Amino acid sequence: MPELPEVQTTVNGLRRRLVGRRVVSFWTDWPRSIRGLTPAQLRRGIEGLEILKIGRLGKNVLVSLAGGHRLLIHQKMTGHLMVGRWSIRRVGRGWLVKSLVAGPLNERTNQYIHAIFTLDSGDMLALSDLRKFARIDFGKKEYILGLPAIYRLGPDALSRHLTPEVFRNAVGGRKKSIKQALMDPSVIAGIGNIYADDILWSARIHPARRADTLSRAELDRILTYTRKILRTAIRLGGTSISDYRNPSGGSGKYGRAILVYRRAGHPCPRCGKEISRIVLGQRSAHFCPSCQRL
After folding, report:
1. How far apart are CA 269 and CA 291, in angstroms?
2. What pTM does this model have?
3. Which of 75, 122, 185, 275 meets the CB 3.0–4.6 Å disulfide criterion with 79?
């Protein structure tokens, strides 16, 4: 699933291409991706609206439109947003969507397009999603911000409001493993499996350690590396070890810089001991048993 760095990379790319443009049409072959509206209702509501701003709420892409409207897209497990131009043709009972732009947009990973917003420039915003789990919400600002998935979000992992004190209060009292606490969006928004592993390795904290046993110094260290790892990942354009691609269809480069995630059996980058893997809350956790003692 795209995490904070991938979503922020997406937002940065979309801002450069979409702000100031108007939406002129909408197409989908997967109506279930839209919550609370039919495709026709979404099309009627969004057509003609200018894109004013694009931002991020946790792992959600938030598009601010004229008239106080908002478009919220959660890419879920395998979704990613791209900007390009595509032809859409009915073939039997299905659809054939083909990129008109040469390059990465033609790669197999980018071929699972199930929603397209066409803009007045002729460019299109497309959602490619192999598993079809991505979700689209559209409505007035008050409706979007009132969705449970949004109002229940904890402080953003890179917000300037996430001070050491706020972080300690949010995380420190949790009676669950620190890895599970970091990945809980109601505690801290934006961190997933990949970056939680690398953050905790950098901070020398075992992922199974209960959050309420951590000292003030340990929590402060985790926050320091949260910011460092996430900012590094944004600079490298996120991680593309699975389906994630940026708005141009290209891969992120953090996969080359991963410290311990999915590196069980490999030597620890710090001490050389073998990286281990355990399961916490049905999710894998990778760590060095020498550097991160329980």
Report:
1. 10
2. 0.96
3. 75
Q: Which CATH architecture has domain 164-287?
A: Orthogonal Bundle (1.10)
Greatest alpha-carbon pair distance for the chain in Å reads 62
Structure tokens that stand for 145 in this block = 């911000």
Q: Does 4-151 match 164-287 in CATH topology?
A: no
Q: Which of 5, 60, 13 is nearest to 248 (CA)?
A: 13
Domain boundaries, the chain: 4-151, 164-287
What is the set of active-site residues? 2-3, 59, 283
What CATH number is given for 4-151 in this structure? Answer: 3.20.190.10
pLDDT tens digits, 6-54 = 999 999 999 999 999 999 999 999 999 999 999 999 999 999 999 999 9
DSSP string, 210-261: BGGG--HHHHHHHHHHHHHHHHHHHHTT---SSS---TTSPPPSGGGT-SST
